[in-house]
């Protein structure tokens, strides 16, 4: 006879659902307690398969920064990134691990080798509000990044990270800082991007942010005024991505779309409303090695697109917006 048991799962002190196991099957039943809003939950890892979560230096010149973690509401404990090997937290399937901190930035330059980063062997869903790493217990409602390089390389090459089917990773900053999200998810298995509501961009703010990931759906990019290198290589090598986010800006700036969708081999739809693409390297190789056939929606006022990977791919159909 199969053993059947339940295991409570907690979020922010609330029992929100139970997991029932019978043989190899897992059944989920929602508890009558209402699911918390992800905006008011600290950054959370819901463990899929056990192993370690590591807090480490990306290189020897990174700062030794301390954050705090809480497993299954068992109380907050501190952990410090002392070296590149890191300090490990042992976790099991079903664990809920929440994080907070009071550091205004986790890197000192644009280089991810000087950042504090997560690592480890566990696989997990990531959701909750990233601002808990900056504002500690006072993260709810915060939308300001205080320093440059805030989250450079934070989850870089953390292949155990993936997207939850119903919970969201919340990144609510509306005004960005230089390189704040650079390389943040590079090489992870994230499939659904968090919403990115910022309209005030900064130099290299999204540089390589989702490059080399399992991303299926891209976030909306609402900014109409761009910053130098703002979207440089943002989605490069996202081979599962088929549709680009709409690009509403009419005036491009130096390097803004450089390599943006390069080697997105499944990409077959782009809507770009630019009318001025004269800035240096603004569309350099931005559509290199995308799908051979696709649809490009352009501004009706625009007549100077070139054919090829620096402009509109030669095999694509062009339509006016």
Q: What is shown here, in short?
A:
By secondary structure, this protein is mainly beta. Among the domains are: 35 residues, no CATH class; 138 residues, no CATH class.
Plain-language structure description:
The chain is an all-beta fold. Among the domains are: 1-35, no CATH class; 37-174, no CATH class. 1% of the residues lie in helices and 27% in strands. It is built from one helix and 16 strands. It has one helix at 132-135; strands at 4-11, 14-22, 25-30, 43-49, 51-57, 66-71, 76-80, 87-91, 96-100, 116-120, 123-129, 161-162, 169-170, 269-272, 295-298, 317-320. Strands 4, 6, 7, 9, 11, 12 and 13 form a seven-stranded mixed β-sheet that branches. A three-stranded antiparallel β-sheet has the order 1-2-3, with no helix packed on it. It has a three-stranded antiparallel β-sheet with strand order 8-5-10, with no helix packed on it. Strand 6 (66-71) and strand 7 form a beta hairpin. The longest helix has 4 residues, at 132-135. The radius of gyration is 21 Å and the shape is elongated. The chain starts with a strand and ends with a strand.
């Amino acid at each position: 006879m199969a053993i059947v048991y339940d295991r409570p799962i907690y979020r922010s002190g609330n029992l929100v659902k139970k997991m029932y196991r019978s043989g190899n099957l897992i059944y989920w039943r929602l508890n009558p307690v209402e699911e918390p809003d992800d905006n008011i939950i600290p950054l959370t890892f819901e463990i899929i398969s056990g192993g370690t979560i590591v807090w480490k230096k990306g290189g020897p010149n990174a700062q030794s920064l301390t954050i705090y973690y809480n497993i299954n509401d068992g109380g907050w404990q501190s952990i410090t990134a002392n070296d590149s090997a890191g300090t490990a937290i042992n976790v099991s399937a079903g664990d809920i691990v929440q994080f907070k901190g009071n550091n205004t930035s986790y890197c000192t330059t644009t280089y991810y080798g000087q950042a504090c980063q997560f690592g480890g062997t566990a696989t997990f869903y990531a959701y909750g509000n990233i601002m808990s790493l900056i504002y500690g217990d006072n993260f709810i409602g915060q939308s300001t990044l205080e320093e440059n390089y805030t989250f450079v390389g934070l989850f870089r090459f953390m292949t155990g990270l993936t997207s939850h089917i119903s919970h969201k990773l919340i990144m609510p900053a509306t005004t960005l800082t230089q390189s704040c999200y650079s390389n943040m998810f590079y090489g992870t298995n994230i499939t659904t991007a968090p919403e990115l509501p910022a309209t005030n961009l900064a130099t290299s703010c999204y540089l390589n942010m989702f490059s080399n990931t399992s991303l299926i759906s891209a976030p909306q990019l609402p900014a109409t005024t761009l910053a130098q290198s703002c979207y440089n290589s943002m989605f490069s090598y996202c081979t599962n991505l088929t549709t680009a986010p709409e690009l509403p800006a009419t005036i491009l700036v130096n390097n803004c779309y450089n390599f943006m969708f390069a080697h997105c081999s499944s990409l077959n739809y782009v809507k770009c409303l630019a009318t001025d693409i004269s800035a240096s390297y603004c569309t350099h190789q931005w559509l290199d090695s995308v799908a051979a056939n696709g649809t490009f929606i352009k501004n009706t006022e625009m007549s100077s697109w070139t054919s090829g990977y620096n402009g509109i791919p030669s095999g694509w159909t062009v339509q006016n917006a």
